[in-house]
Amino acid sequence: MLEQDLVTKAKDLAAANFKEKMNCAESVFSALRGVGLIDCPAETVALATGFGGGIGLTGYACGALLGAVLAVSSVYGRKNPLEGSTGEERLQKLYGKPGIYRLFNSMPQQFQARMGAVNCRELCAPYEWQSKERNLNCRKAVETAVEIAVEHILAGRTDGLMRTFGPNVAGAE
Question: Which top-level group of life is the source organism from (predicted)?
């Protein structure tokens, strides 16, 4: 399947999930599973439940973005972080070049550039919570997060682990 077709199919599935009252994180994670980009049992969607509403309606990091990060992690995350390496080698798998964090680092920046914020509270501030407008904005966030996740899952197969770091708390380059 062509990348754009995959993105379209995943966005459509995520939007349908959201219309069926899955929360934002569940909608994203389930859609990426549904199109075959992540290989997890159906019950793993439960891992995304608590992220809805910016983590249990707290308004922190957008659940759609967190669902996307969770999905990309299910593909590229360390399955057994302590197995077969020293502490320094484990850190290099995260920070090094190649390094797993390089793949994830741009996800929030891309989401913010497209949506205007990464926090649920900011994304929803202009709307009444039960309004159609807020619901439409959250559906847009779900579709945006899916698109970013597809791009990152596919990039991880090629150059994603070699990307240059953007802004980060560690000062990594």
Answer: Bacteria
